[in-house]
Amino acid sequence: MRPEILFPLFAEVTTLKGVGAKVAPQIRKVAGPLVRDLLFLAPTGLIHRRATTADQAMEGEVAILDVVIDRHIRPHKIGAPWKVRASDPTGFVHLIWFRGGPHLERLVPSGERRVVSGKVEIFNNEIQILHPDVVKAEAAGDIPLAETVYPSTEGLARRIVRRLALEALKTAPDLPEWQDPAWIARKRWPGWRAALETLHNPQTEADLSPDAPPRLRLAYDELLAHQLALARRRQSRQTVSAPVITPGPASEQVLAALPFELTGAQKQAVVEIRADLASGEQMGRLLQGDVGSGKTAVAAIAMADAASSGRQSALMAPTEILARQHHQRLAPMLENAGVRAVLLTGRDTAAERRPKLAALASGEATVAIGTHALFQDAVQFHDLALAVIDEQHRFGVNERQRLQAKGRDGVHLLTMSATPIPRTLELTQYGDLDVSRLREKPPGRTPVTTAVLPLARIDEVANRLKAAVAEGAQAYWICPLVAESEAIDLAAAEARAVELRAHLGLNVGLAHGQMNGADRESVMTAFSEGHVPVLVATTVVEVGVDVPNATIMVIEHADRFGLAQLHQLRGRVGRGSKQSACILLYGDLGEVARERLDVLRRSEDGFEIAEEDFRLRGGGDPLGLKQSGFPAYRFADPMRHRDLILAASDDARLILHRDPDLTGERGRAVQVLESLFDWRADRPAAD
Ligand code: ADP
Ligand code: MG
């Protein structure tokens, strides 16, 4: 329930004076549909103006000139600007409009006085103003000397945005303080409304900085609101009862059947998961670990635990090939323990599928492994208690929920991610989940040697590849796909495959995202079975595919990939006991780009690489997370404000711990904050 005091802010922008049918859609585009969205629209700049005369005007400054219009010089050809000559007692100035028209004769009529403002340019030793931003008939004193610049859009004058933002500011009520007073005092942050006042009335460039106290205050408000929403979600999940699952004979047998000893990190993760499963509350846990860190074994044990307790579980993978691989590995181990595991994918024929569905519905099959096919309506479980999602970022929240909805009670959730992310991002993305991290790699792996080389040395690389392949090695060769010109990139990858085929005299496979699923899979399968020694691929075609014999990874234009992505790609080699190599070929490299690639040479720890990548890339969307449900903050920048994220997370948990229903004085204020940002309603986080 939204508190009444916020109603004016949650009214449509059309309730503001001067927002008609024409402006409204433009405002919605720039800010959003609500008055609140205008209130939260941060200015991006500040224009300083100076009142001066034609002889004193300086190039580059934004001048205010008090002039008389001399005459109009119409364009002499299409595309030429409309010029207006104007003068003051000290000299003259040309006012220039591209795409000008006769309406200018009304705006600046010949013989009349006008006050104009705009950026001064010098052209042919004469001063001119291109597209004056203010033209007035009144006195110069009416033009503000400092003017706030807002984001805008085609056809929407910035000053309209400014006027409306200030209008929105007027409707902002004084609200009870939701922040801890001691914290605010220590930070020397203003109150909420005062912070917004300064936001919309910056006096200096420093006021525009994301580190200015009012902006930090607003960023912290936003982060706290988000962390609260996540913490509340976590809290409400813990009140959902879910089956009590404890290890039993099947768990023992699966553990015994694993051809290896669990690593310390795997054991720790199993302990954490078991505590959740036995709690009677619904588990929501993220298992993070690099490619190859052994997440599957951990999941297998959890599923065996469920089976031991007489419950069903499901393992969902994003692709057919991954689902098959999981099934191939896990089914024998599970069957050996008396647990039947069926594989469900989109490729099953109706006749193949029918008995599997029947077995799941009757409970005769205990484990379902599959792709998106798993959450389809036709799939019914007898008693689903645990859902495991592999490569969780490849699924939407919705898909995960549809699978979880197939249980009678709460269904425990274990999501797995092979994309280590910095702790701060973990909190913003998965603040409602508990996290287990696998930082340790299974033993017996030789580290991957990484080389960073210029593209110019590509022939040398191809020759070395030829020698290695002659000795039985397999290699991936990755060509980047840059969104703007997919066709060209694709052609480049195709050409590369042809060249390598000719150069190596060998079978070279090609896999890319534009191929149909079946073709792509047959190439991938041929590669994984060793029939094709070299595979050229455009992107991360199949994350998580395990081909232990592949020991060489060549990445062309490595500078075009994110570090996390490169690290993931590299993770596909070094999976067997043989020495592996990763060759990063770069095109043009700036200083930062070189430093970035160097991080990969130094480290094989995905968590460390993620932190470094985050640090080097600065703000914005360093890991391409926006597409994967990463929150779009208005004030907060996960990079710059990372300390605030950590603080907000602690703060949120503490607030809920002290006042779980938010009924105390601060609790009620905090509820207003929550409504103000409305994280629950409009932007669910990834899980
Ligand atoms: P992930 O899913 O985390 O990328 P996998 O579960 O596919 O990694 O494991 C990668 C490889 O490591 C598999 O071949 C698996 O059998 C092996 N493996 C897993 N855990 C261990 C371990 N504790 N000791 C040795 N090998 C392991
Ligand atoms: Mg995996």
TrEMBL record:
Residues 276-438 form the Helicase ATP-binding domain. InterPro entries: DEAD/DEAH_box_helicase_dom (IPR011545), Helicase_ATP-bd (IPR014001), Helicase_C-like (IPR001650), NA-bd_OB-fold (IPR012340), P-loop_NTPase (IPR027417), RecG/Mfd (IPR047112). PROSITE patterns: HELICASE_ATP_BIND_1 (PS51192), HELICASE_CTER (PS51194). Residues 457-615 form the Helicase C-terminal domain. GO terms for biological process: DNA repair. Signal peptide: none annotated. GO terms for molecular function: ATP binding; DNA binding; DNA helicase activity; hydrolase activity. Keywords: ATP-binding, DNA damage, DNA repair, DNA-binding, Helicase, Hydrolase, Nucleotide-binding. The keyword DNA repair applies. NCBIfam families: PRK10917.1-2. This is ATP-dependent DNA helicase RecG. It comes from Brevundimonas abyssalis TAR-001.
